[in-house]
Amino acid sequence: MNRELTCIICPKGCLLRVEGNESDLIATGNACPRGAQYAKQECTNPVRTLTTVLRVSNRCDTMVAVKTLRPIPKAAIPAAMAQLRNITVTAPVSIGDTVLDDLFGSPVVVTKGAE
């Protein structure tokens, strides 16, 4: 495997190069150890924090922002969005309230409340 990535861990945006096979990857171009870790994970098991909005059932034209507390597998994002599409919340909700206990291994919490 030979792959080039731009690191998203910090604002530097290091150009990373990953070489080797899945069990023995070598990352270069990183300015810090976190960049190497990111590059290896991105090549073997990419994950993302999912952010979206949910409809508030007892308010007209109101949405509430939510996110996963932990990153979920990148490949699971379409299925996660399909599951979240069927969820509504009832106001009032506050920042940190749990909307869903387990979405591909992560709770989903409110990031902006609705009165």
The coarse overall form would be elongated
Give the uncertain stretches in residue-range form.
none
- Binned strand content: 35-45%
Count of beta strands: 10
pLDDT averaged residue by residue: 94
The Rg value, from CA coordinates, equals 18 Å
Helix content: 10-25%
Number of helices: 2
Structural class: alpha+beta
Distance between the termini: 51 Å
Largest sheet: 5 strands, mixed
Order of strands in the sheet with most strands? 8-5-6-10-9
- Reading the helices and strands in chain order gives EEEHEEEEHEEE
What's the topology here?
Layout: E1 2-6, E2 15-21, E3 24-28, H1 33-44, E4 47-48, E5 51-56, E6 63-68, E7 72-73, H2 77-84, E8 88-89, E9 98-103, E10 106-112
In words, what does this structure look like?
By secondary structure, the protein is α+β, with helices and mostly antiparallel strands. It contains two helices and ten strands; from the N terminus they run E-E-E-H-E-E-E-E-H-E-E-E. Strand 1 and strand 2 form a beta hairpin. It is elongated. It starts with a strand and ends with a strand.
Key phrases:
about 15% helix, five-stranded mixed β-sheet, three-stranded antiparallel β-sheet, elongated, 10 strands, about 40% strand, alpha+beta, about 120 residues
Quick recap:
The protein is of the alpha+beta class. It has helices at residues 33-44, 77-84, and strands at residues 2-6, 15-21, 24-28, 47-48, 51-56, 63-68, 72-73, 88-89, 98-103, 106-112.
